[in-house]
Each structure stands twice: as structure tokens, then as C-alpha cells.
Amino acid sequence: MAEIVRAALVQTGWTGDQESMVKAHEGYAREAAAQGAKVICFQELFYGPYFCQVQDPEFYAYAESVPGPTTERFQALAAELGMVMVLPMYEQEQAGVLYNTAAVIDADGKYLGKYRKNHIPQVKGFWEKFYFRPGNLGYPVFDTAVGRIGVYICYDRHFPEGWRALGLAGAKIVFNPSATSRGLSSYLWKLEQPASAVANEYFIGAINRVGVEEYGENDFYGTSYFVDPEGKFVGEVGDDHNPELIVRDLDLGLLDTVRDRWQFYRDRRPDAYGDLTKP
To answer: Which of these, 23, 60, 58, lies nearest to 42 by C-alpha position?
Structure first.
């Protein structure tokens, strides 16, 4: 397995309908493959608007089974391009049981599994409890053609426990697809994920959509990036207003260097952390 992994992130705006969003992301995937990328992650709820700015049951119609039609469509594309794909979608497990989910597809098109967002906000502009149940699949890590990868979704990033669980499970790259607003979280955006990459000693791909959509005033500020386990941005961060494909080379050899230097996993004290899990 190559130590250097070329990886891609997509930040883009809402096009106005689901099919054009799907086609746009197919185009981004093809462009990333042309640049040599072997893994790509899209933004949170990638094929739709960020409808959680309002509470309206009409948006339940965006939910589908995972795996299902969109997953299968991108399985075929992943196999064609030889690319690992992370697809953040709105999942319907059964009528009335809905999750904020990311499907993971290997480079041969095989569906590997899914992560369901565990931490669900319910604040102005982010009325997510109206749409999603909390995840119930834990913090899976997926063996892919580019190594072991994990997924954490948007609001999850404020909770250190999941980041650590992914590291303990052997993740080398963790993707955090998001939809976060300039006025709310921009002061945290370049702090939390670099700090989590350092604390857990892996690469993080942080993705945020761009623009203002018709369902609210949230100004999604892009600024997507990769950060390494030393807390350094890998290349420039994305534009804060415009769609962009971010393609970067990640040197996975750095993981062993950093873990040998700091030994955070050796020096953990789980025997002393019991009170942290009490309600």
C-alpha cells in the first residue's frame, strides 16, 4: 500500500435540484480522478440543500435507503474510476426512521458500510432533531484501497470521544463532511479539527459547503482542508465563498513518526476515565 495517498474533498453550492447536484458531484469525482485522486469525500447531505434551516416534513422526501439508488449509482462510478468514495446522504431505514449517514464505497465499487451521525444539534438554523435520529452504529472504521478510514459528520466534531474512538480503531484518515455557517462556527473551524488531528494522530479532511441557500440565512463558508497529525494544513485551505475541488497528497508515513514521538496511545489511562461516561 502506497504511503502517499492523493485525496480529494468537494465543497460546492446548492444547484436547485437533486439530479443536478448528483451530476455535479459525478463531475467532481471524474475531475479528481483525472488529477490522480484515489479517495474523495463529498459534503454533508451532498445531493440536496441543507434543509435543516427550517422544520418542514416535505424534506423527508430526500431520504432514501443506504445502500440504495444513489449509493449504487456511485458504486458504479467508483469502480470505473478506481476511487474510494464517501457519500454523505439522508438515510431512511424504514418509514419514520431517518438518519444523517455517510456510505463508504471501495475503489472496486464494493459497498463497505456506513456511519450514522451520532450527535444531533437542535439550535436556530440547525434543526436536525426534526429530521434525524442519533446514530446507532458506533464509530466504524473501514478497510479501503487507501487504508483504514473513518467518518465523523459536522456537529460530531465538537465531541472528542468519537475522534478518539476512530483512532483506537486504527483510522489513518478521518473525513468530516459538514454544513456550517459563517456567523456561528468560523472561529472554531481552523481550531477543532487540527487539534483533533494532533490529539488522535491521523489526517482529517474537513469539508464545508458554500453559499446562502433559499431555506435560510446560513452563510456556508467553505474553507475545506486537509490537516496532518502535526496540526499543519496540507496545502492551502479552500475558498470561503466559491465551489472548489481540493486535491492533496497525504503522507501516511508521518503517522508512525508522530506516534513514535508522542506515544499518546501508550500513555492513555482508560482505567481513570470511567466518570467521563456517566450521564
So the answer is: 23
Q: How many helices (H) and strands (E) does the chain have?
A: 5, 15
Helix, strand, coil shares of the chain as percentages rounded to 5?
Answer: 35, 30, 40
User: How many angstroms from the chain centroid is the CA of residue 109?
Assistant: 19
Question: Which residues are paired to 245 by β-bridges?
Answer: 10
Is the torsion defined by CA of 46, 48, 49, 53 positive or negative?
A: negative
Q: Annotated catalytic sites, by residue? A: 44, 117, 154
Residue 39, SS3?
A: strand
pLDDT tens digits for the chain (279 residues)? Answer: 459 999 999 999 999 999 999 999 999 999 999 999 999 999 999 999 999 999 999 999 999 999 999 999 999 999 999 999 999 999 999 999 999 999 999 999 999 999 999 999 999 999 999 999 999 999 999 999 999 999 999 999 999 999 999 999 999 999 999 999 998 999 999 999 999 999 999 999 999 999 999 999 999 999 999 999 999 999 999 999 999 999 999 999 999 999 999 999 999 999 999 999 888
Q: Looking at the whole model, is its pTM more than 0.85?
A: yes
Q: Are 66 and 171 in contact (CB under 8 A)?
A: no
Supply the DSSP symbol for 149: E
For the chain, where are the E strands, in sequence order? Answer: 4-11, 39-41, 84-94, 97-105, 111-116, 122-123, 126-127, 141-144, 147-151, 173-178, 203-208, 210-212, 219-221, 225-227, 244-251
